[in-house]
Amino acid sequence: MRAFDRLTQPAIAAVLALLATLGGVAACSRSDGPTQGSGSASRVELQFWTLALAPFEDYIRERIAAFEAENPGVKVVWSDVPYEAIDRKLMAAAAAGRAPDLVNMADRTFARFVAMDAMVDLKPLLPGDVSATYLSGALRLPSLGDRLLGLPWYLTTQTVLLNEPVLTAGGLTRQSLGRDWKSLQRQALDFHQRTGNYLFSIPLGFEADLPFMMLADGVVPFTEDRSGPQPRLRANLLDPAVIAFLEGWVATFRSGAMPAEAVTGGNSHQPQLYKERRLALINTGPNFLKQIQRDSPTVFQGTQVEPAITGSLNRAHIAVMVLSVTNQSRNPELAARLAWFMTSAQSQLLLCRRAVVLPSVTAALDDPLFAFPSAEPLSDPAAEAERRIQYARALSARALRDAVAFTPSLEAWPDLRRAFEDGFKRVLLDGRDLRVTLQDIQTTWDGILALVPGTMDAVPRPAAVPARQPPPSGQPSTQRSTPASTTGQGSPA
Question: What is the CATH number of the domain that holds 132?
């Protein structure tokens, strides 16, 4: 757990008070330095912070040089910040009046700062049509009401990696495998009883995915209170749809169909169990294929790639990296121009060729980089591995058309999620009553939301889309079909 996620409710109030004082600092900062239109002959400096991109220094420096060439007199000073340090360093810099002009944040850190008046609205500063440029599902995260508080940069979304020998040992095939979480829950217990292994696992306690999956299933744990002068969010955890959704996961875990690590292990338990052949499938990013190839060549040989498991909305979740202009920038127009440049189709494709990540710009998805490869397997192991990774990349890129960032744009989101995790773990590990626990969590959530305002604009509520038909296989099966069971899912790498 990152340090910033451990803020208590009084600490949140203190942070808000601190950020409220920064408006005056920011106004002073923007007025006492040279700007693009000031007529000053002095060189303009833009401070640009990225997040854990040091391994791609050559890419960042090449892009900065290209931007400087297009904008004579502008000097971009780049700093890369470790993932775990970004919250602390950004808060410290803002408190000292030295926040960067442009900052790269992960979606959860962005949610921390979104309602703190810490970022500039980019709509009047950008040179092009945002809605026609970026994927709508990625653009949802930094859009709040009529404001645009950042631009989506590179993305990751999920595909299914499945170990076909482990799957068929449990009486399932790629054709009979469920394509949504409810179907997999129905298949999980029979699979475990047949093999002693597990069909799937997800984080239920630490780093719980359930709050995102709830929204991806069309179940909204919030409501809006309009009784006061301003609408505000309240918890809606006692809604029958929320209770039914969570009861399904409690029953699946208590039946023994999921490993104990699902409650205590966080996200890291899934790749580990998969490489040990204890999981038949893992819902993860395509970059994990390279790790399997390196660490477990035999497991890699039996691994096939399938579309991501989704909720009832048939939309995959996007993890979004955001570029935001801070309200302390002395040159917000130039900083916005740098954000536009770094998120252009050309800039993003250059990054995607270096890392298994995806672009947020619609036009970039038409590049051959994201085309499906030939289905014909290759005799050279290294070339075959690259072909399979290319298939996973193409599959995840196709899913982006309908995918959505299901992270709410709420600065209190990490605290709400932590409160949910703490309570839900007691249900799973201690046998505590779910409804009583949800009542306690609801009280905690309402206390947090009373301190940190928000509206339903911050909560992703997309409509359902039709399920996509399976794409070209891209990898012939390595196993013979067996009868189907009658019992019925970060930084570049």
Answer: 3.40.190.10
